[in-house]
Amino acid sequence: MSTLSVIEKWVEVRSKVLDLGCGNGNILSELQKTKDVIGLGVEIEEKNIEECLLQNINVIEQNIDDGLINFSNDSFDVVILSQTIQVLKNPNTALGEITRIGKTCIVTIPNFGHWRSRLSLLFNGRMPVTSPLPESWHATPNIHLCTLKDFEMLCSELLITIEERVTVNSNNENKWYLNIWPNLFSASAIYKISK
Amino acid sequence: MDNKISSVGKVQTQSFESKETLILESGDQLESLEMIFETYGNLNPERTNAILVCHALSGNHHSAGYYEDPDERKGWWDSLIGPGKAIDTDKYFVVSPNNLGGCHGTTGPTSIDPKTQEIYGPDFPMVTVSDWVNCQALLADHLGIKVWHSVIGGSLGGMQALNWSITYPDRIRKAIVIAAAPKLSAQNIAFNEVARQAIITDSDYQDGYYLKAGKSPKRGLRLARMVGHITYLSDEAMRDKFGRELKEDKLNFGYGAEFEVESYLRYQGDVFSESFDANTYLLMTKLLDYFDPADKCDGSLVKAFEPIKAQVMVVSFTSDWRFSPERSKEISDALLEANKNVSYLEIESTHGHDSFLFSEDRYVRAIKAFLGSGQ
Questions:
Q1: Cβ separation B362–A50 shorter than 8 A
Q2: Domain B189-285 architecture
């Protein structure tokens, strides 16, 4: 099962979905097709915003780091924060905000505890550069990388409930062996959380 | 980009007359209406590709192309309207009217009042953005356009687009609201008031009956335009364009136009005062001051937006301080809160409020994408 199909499974038909850091709008576009959702994206990259407009996806140009006060409490059924939390200045504020805005939230994170990252640091003695995280330490937009454990601890500190978790390997597949040691074998995780 | 060379070419002004009594928002009535407009491109047989372009303060119906000579000054939005341009006349049928109270042919202060057979002058009734939109709806009826594909405008034009989506939710599919505000701030009104005072206190204004007296308050109009023009540009744009450049190499220690910026403003003021009617200018600044759709809904913009069905794209420019991005955000946020289909873009540009007139690449592509999607 891929990340997108997990998200699809967790989103109800015709629900109102906010995708923060929506990129080119591919998740919303898919959800509009398969789940007939009412979608809205938030994005800062010009190119991505244009792609959203081309796909007829409503998109707001807004920096998540500047706050989300313009979105009112429980105004969306689902808030998605996909592969975005690691580029934010204040991940904890963002988690508080998305659980305020969305009845449920879906967060996907790259797992820095993945064995490739661990081995790379252990043997090369340098910050890992892997295919899911390809930039070197000084050039990466990913300023707040974490492991699955780190993320789960932050959620518990913020009194956020993790309702479900699915992990995937670097090919974006959910395989049985990931469950042996998720924090070592998973490249990414998809969380369903709420407050 | 071929964008810049392609043009709708030679255009002609058309006119439409309505003999029905027009009841204005103020309660005043107009017995008949003549409206001047231009169209570019072709209306498709289904009549689904019509775009209404709304002009701003001091604008008119001539938004693209030229009348006689290809080298003459083109329509005010020629950068955006034309074959292959942001508002693509190969795809869309563009309608561009001169609004009620204007001075370029549409019924306004320079027209003859049928009751008195004299020029209206200052006796022309005060009109509002809603009145403008209602007249545009009459024009749409006349052209057989039931539903606009889109209504687009910058500044005061954006306010008309917004008003369209509120007043005629079933007659508009998309709205592009550019460099606008949900209402004027005290500072905005203050600048308008300076402009009005400049005109009214000109001794040639003659209480508004200057045409009858064979005069024209050109000094006032010129000053009004100069003040207005400063608010259309950004500090940065003025610095880039003029800096402290002198017309001659040395200071003359006098009050002539020594700095380039002085000479530019004087020129702009001169041109404008020769071509625009003072009463129309007064009327249009007042119409701007009055615009406030939330006022009828207990001050709630969210409530005012309730009827909207159109997909709205709100566009602002970073260097615009007349209607700053924050003002556009107010519109976009209220639309979000009202659960409407809204997109918001903040475009990097140095041209200040005037940015909406330029064909900045990102701006052009965004308009094209928004207009073209989800046919």
A1: yes
A2: Orthogonal Bundle (1.10)
Q: What is the ipTM metric for this complex?
A: 0.94
B372: Cα separation from own chain's centroid = 23
CATH of the domain at A136: 3.40.50.150
Query: DSSP assignment of A58-100, as one string?
Result: -EEE--GGG--TTS-TT-EEEEEEES-GGG-S-HHHHHHHHHH
Nearest chain A residue to B312 by CA distance is A58
What does the pLDDT look like over B163-217, one tens digit per residue? 999 999 999 999 999 999 999 999 999 999 999 999 999 999 999 999 999 999 9
CA-based nearest residue in chain A for residue B347: A46
Which candidate, B173, B155, B157, B135, places its Cα nearest to that of B51?
B173
Nearest CA to B131 out of B16, B277, B286 is that of B286
- Name which of A61, A70, A74 to mutate to probe chain B: the one with the most chain B Cβ atoms within 10 A of its Cβ: A61
List active site positions of B: 155, 320, 353
CATH architecture of B2-183+293-372: 3-Layer(aba) Sandwich (3.40)
B211-262: pLDDT as tens digits? 999 999 999 999 999 999 999 999 999 999 999 999 998 899 989 999 999 9
Tell me if A120 sits within 8 A of A190, measured CB to CB.
no
Q: Which domain covers residue A62, as residue numbers?
A: 3-194
List chain B domain ranges.
2-183+293-372, 189-285
Confirm whether pTM is higher than 0.80. yes
